[in-house]
Design brief:
The complex is a heterodimer of chains A (283) and B (149). Chain A has 283 residues and is α+β, with helices and mostly antiparallel strands. Chain A has a domain of 83 residues: Enolase-like, domain 1. Chain A contains eleven helices and 14 strands. Chain B is of the alpha+beta class and 149 residues long. Chain B has two domains: 73 residues, Ubiquitin-like (UB roll); 72 residues, Orthogonal Bundle (DNA polymerase, domain 1), CATH 1.10.150.120. Chain B is 30% helix and 13% strand. In chain B, strand 1 and strand 2 form a beta hairpin. In chain B, helix 2 packs across helix 5. Chain B is globular. Classes of the chains: A alpha+beta (283), B alpha+beta (149). Chains A and B meet through helix 2 and helix 6 of A and strand 4 of B.
């Protein structure tokens, strides 16, 4: 590991209450969940900080449950848990599909939904799902909780409204009406980070969300409006091109991402338009 | 730092942010677990924590406090799998082999080729082209313990 250990300090709370108190008294601290992002940085010699807060032992943040019509997902739920969870499969199959395509099984066993939200990479694969599902992020500090609509959570590239003394403790997903769709395009199915990732919901008011095409995950609201008003996917594709701002980077080019984003929109519309198609989740 | 390593309770004095990979190799002197990429992509450092495959280069040892850790040295119940890697040419240079075997050991009985390919998607091999590896896992799956690997 290229980062020397001696300057690093790890705080190890036994409960959420302890963790929030440590954040208030000792902060700012870098929260550690499954470490699948933070340890990549540490291994590369680019630590995101020197003081860390180990959340891994806080089992109270691992629960996935249904309350009324809302699916409550604890921030420490791993991708393996999400992929296997019956309530997730039943209510949010596009999230189960995304969870199965993140990393390999070793990453799925460790990576968490709270970590994906907190890292806030524009390529985070669960994020378009949460955007399309109109999820709500639950933030908590020592004084209380607040709920932030997912589509207002990010303020810029890897930047969010989370304050330094707050933890992401859960994500709440209201019932999603309509056919859900998810597709990730990358170099290979496992391990590769997305070049473009899209989640969609086919309903009277369709929802379309994409990753890796802008500094943050986006809801393509103009594209959605065209689909809702006209159902004309060619026109919606033109609208989408005005809503995304992909870049050239080590994984792909802006031009390729534009083309793929347009193709995914058409695929979403075609796949979800046929009433008797068995699985709305694309493979 | 107390945890169970290959069935025995160990107590390691290490910085809680030291990588489990380094603790295994340097403090516990178990060098069967290999470092490949150091960023969770290649799977060479795969070990089991409470029965689940993880890349030990991404795990701070502080997160295995009280857990059961199994490395290739502790995989005594999976001889069929290890022998099949030998007989099917599943190992060439060998650096990916411990990680491959650790991940394969988490598969259920008589796995299909599809299940094997999906399970091993996070373990990279630059030598074999994977054919020998998949054959080895299939062979072990059929052989003993009613197909248990």
């Amino acid at each position: 590991m290229r980062t020397p250990l001696s300057p690093l300090r790890l705080f190890e709370p036994r409960s959420l209450r302890d963790a929030l108190r440590l954040l208030a008294d000792e902060g700012p601290l870098v929260p550690l969940a499954g470490c699948t992002d933070v340890y990549v940085s540490l291994n590369a010699g680019a630590p995101p900080g020197t003081r860390f807060l180990n959340l891994w032992a806080l089992d109270e943040l691992r629960r996935i449950e249904v309350r009324g019509s809302t699916l409550m997902i604890g921030a420490l739920a791993t991708y393996t848990q999400l992929a296997r969870s019956k309530p997730v499969q039943a209510r949010l199959p596009m999230l189960a599909a995304a969870a199965r395509e993140i990393g390999g099984i070793q990453i799925q066993n460790r990576g968490t939904i709270g970590g994906n939200i907190g890292t806030g990479s524009p390529a985070g694969d669960s994020l378009p799902v949460l955007a399309a599902a109109a999820a709500v992020v639950v933030l908590q500090n020592a004084r209380g909780r607040r709920q932030v609509p997912f589509n207002r959570f990010y303020t810029g590239y890897r930047a969010s409204v989370r304050r330094p003394d707050e933890l992401i403790v859960a994500v709440e997903v209201p019932a999603v009406d309509g056919r859900q769709w998810f597709r990730k395009v990358g170099t290979r199915a496992a391990q590769a980070i997305s070049k473009v990732v899209m989640a969609g919901v086919r309903a009277d008011r369709p929802r379309v969300a994409l990753g890796s095409v802008a500094p943050t995950v986006i809801r393509a609201t103009r594209t959605e409006a065209v689909l809702a008003e006209t159902g004309d996917v060619a026109e919606a594709r033109r609208a989408l091109m005005t809503e995304i701002a992909p870049i050239d980077d080590l994984r792909s080019t802006a031009a390729y991402r534009r083309r793929v984003a347009g193709n995914l929109l058409e695929r979403f519309w075609a796949d979800t338009g046929i009433a008797d198609r068995r699985s709305p989740i694309a493979d | 730092m107390r945890f169970t390593l290959n069935g025995k309770v160990v107590n390691v004095r290490a910085h809680p942010m030291k990588r489990l990979l380094d603790v295994l190799r340097e403090d516990c002197h178990l060098t069967g677990t290999k470092e490949g990429c150091g960023e969770g992509e290649c799977g060479a450092c795969t070990v089991l924590v409470n029965g689940a495959a993880v890349t030990s280069c991404l795990v701070p040892v502080g997160q295995v406090r009280g857990a059961r850790v199994t490395t290739i040295e502790g995989l005594k119940r999976h001889r069929a799998l290890q022998e099949a890697f030998v007989s099917e040419g599943g190992a060439q240079c060998g650096i990916c082999t411990p990680g491959m075997i650790m991940t394969a050991s988490t598969l259920g009985p008589s796995p299909s080729l599809d299940e094997i390919r999906s399970a091993l998607a996070g373990n990279l091999c630059r030598c074999t082209g994977y054919g020998g590896i998949y054959r080895a896992v299939q062979r072990a799956g059929k052989k003993k313990h009613g197909g248990r690997l």
